[in-house]
Amino acid sequence: MNLFYISLILTFASLLFLENKKIAFFISFVLLFIPWGLQFQATQDWDVNLLRWDFVNVNAKVGLDGEDRELEPLYALILKACKPLSFYGFLMLSGLVELSVIFLFIKKYVNPSYYWVSIFILMIKVNYGLLFINSNRQTLSVICVMVAAYFMINAKLPKSLKDKNILYIFLSVLMFLAAPKIHSSSYISYIIIPLYFLIKWVKSPNRIFLFALCNVLYVSRFLIDAENYQFFASLYLNSLHIEEINFFDKYLEGLDNENLVSSRFNQLVEWSMMNLLIFFYHKLSTEHRFFGAMWILSYLLGGFLMHTLARITVYFYIFLIFVAPRVFELINEKVDKKNILLLSIYLTTILFFLNNFRVNMTDDGEGRYYYKWHDFKTVFEAPDWK
User: Fold this and answer.
1) How would you class 173 by CB atoms within 10 Å of its CB: exposed for 0-12, middle for 13-18, buried for 19 or more?
2) I need a labelling partner for 82 at 20 to 30 A (CA). Which of 93, 162, 181, 376 fits?
């Protein structure tokens, strides 16, 4: 068994069986850094990331298909600053930063008894952790958005010029501005700002209205042909006159409903999660309401997106990691933990996602991003140090 699978097994074992959750949490961080920061050629985008590094630090041409557009300026600056560390050192440092921010969010917003739920979603749902490791540039942009959101939700109206909230507001704005300078798709994350203040403003929304609205929008994915809107989306992007997204037209073919062929069970689980978030909305903190709303937005929007274009929802669906454990906690408070039906549902869901993980680790379809993890190697096994 390779080191990748060993690190996953030991991570879940420590979170589930060690009584001291602080120690278990630290152990899981160390173990997950192995795939997150030390992997060698385990990702589909390894060559692309290396070419970007060479483009900045060796003056090579970027792109496997002749694409030679400039990289986002802040990402290029980060690569240049990390040149003394080497390419592998850059991957280690970025992996450490990404994992640290995610774990700090888990520590702050998740009950220690449910840490395992966050890590399960992060590492077993392949469009989370493994995709984050694969898409290094976008993940750094996601981390900027997360940090911006953190300072935004913890900031209050400042009472004086020395108030720390001025710093929080400044850092929030700075990180929101920095994100698209690393990956231009993060312009969409600006939706977060008005949505958060709407959640703060409307403290007790009508849950029946929310159920109706979200489920109507969910059903619409089966009734609306999203391809018809590619032309209008192109016109809108061009009207913004933002240089960094001029190239984005080529991704609009991903505006499609093709993903309706995905697993019916997966749809059932995610549809249930959406409705559970609405059902428990009044019991969630403002922060968890915000996280839940972000994930629901990604879920509803994702019904009309395919392929590379679907990745723009990562700025929203990342927050499921921090609110799903709270939903589990509320379910357990309402239902006897020894309830056979509840345990059966939990077990079925976990086994499904484990099997889904297994299927996605083949070299077919979306699995092309992940099958290399079967032959996991660390950078210390690399033939030369780049």
Assistant:
1) middle
2) 376
